[in-house]
Specification:
The protein has 280 residues and is an alpha/beta fold. The chain is built from 8 helices and 12 strands. Helix 4 packs across helix 5.
């Protein structure tokens, strides 16, 4: 459902990604591990569409959720090479792919991409409820779906907050303002549960979490995203989160390329031996 081929990307003229290849199939969770400066967060930003990063070579194709039908006023998507399938008047076909790199960030969200930040941003003056309802209904409108009513949205938001063990009063507070590091990450999981994306890129979701919060967040990822029609790219330094979210594949990213791939046992080896020894 996500195919990255020979991806090169730079920021301020400095090349960070240097020919990255990766494929994630529906139902799979892949972990990206690697040392500081390897390009892990850059990969997340490029997939999310952060404008400071320039893709200089390569392609990223993505398979949107066919259930979510066609986009309204959608941009001129170009299908992935060899994977094209004509659209129909009723919406997207199951085989259709889009060229992710041609889409603006909000368009990537509308086709089902979710980016969890390493450092979740604070938005003073905008409550969680306001922010999430507008985000969700904007995506629904872009897909040609009816917006959720206020009561239906609040029911969904409260259910997700309860499932993540977050006090419902935090939904009324400005987005992440005054939240601890762990509360911000837990709030991000609530956001993901409400948006219910097709594919999630989670950048160091385990940072700043205590033992109990780590378990709660891990269970949240499994509950929301461990489904046959979804996928996850889990960016992390450590094996500890993978004790709760077992990946289908683990990749070592070093100097802008994936230098080694394996199963969950690779994460254990990395924790024991370190990146330099395991990737040699």
């Amino acid at each position: 459902m996500l195919k990255i081929e020979n991806l090169h990307a730079e920021i301020d003229g400095k090349e960070i990604l240097k020919g990255l290849d990766l494929e994630v199939k529906p139902g799979e969770i892949h972990a990206i591990m690697g040392p500081n400066g390897a390009g892990k967060s850059t990969l997340g930003y490029v997939l999310g569409g952060r404008p400071e990063y320039e893709v200089t070579q390569g392609s990223v194709t993505f398979q949107p959720n066919p259930v979510h039908a066609e986009l309204v006023d959608a941009p001129s998507f170009s299908s992935g090479e060899g994977k094209s399938s004509p659209s129909t008047g009723s919406g997207r076909t199951e085989e259709e792919w889009v060229d992710l790199l041609t889409l603006e960030p909000h368009e990537r969200a509308a086709v089902g991409m979710f980016l969890g930040f390493q450092y979740p941003v604070e938005i003073p003056g905008i409550s969680n409820v306001q922010f999430l309802r507008e985000a969700l209904n904007s995506q629904r409108r872009a897909r040609g779906e009816e917006p959720l009513s206020g009561s239906d949205f609040l029911k969904r938001a409260r259910a997700q907050a309860d499932a993540l063990g977050m006090d419902q009063d935090m939904l009324k507070r400005p987005v992440n303002v005054g939240f601890s590091g762990g509360e911000k990450k837990r709030n991000e999981m609530v956001q993901m549960g409400i948006i219910d994306p097709r594919f999630a890129i989670l950048d160091e979701t385990d940072s700043g979490l205590d033992i109990d919060a780590l378990k709660t967040v891990g269970e949240g990822i499994n509950r929301i995203m461990r489904k046959p029609d979804k996928g996850v790219l889990l960016i992390t330094h450590y094996q500890r989160l993978l004790e709760y979210v077992e990946p289908d594949a683990v990749h070592v990213l070093a100097a802008g390329r994936i230098v080694r791939s394996g199963g969950p046992e690779l994460a254990v080896e990395l924790e024991r031996e370190g990146y330099q020894a395991a990737a040699a």
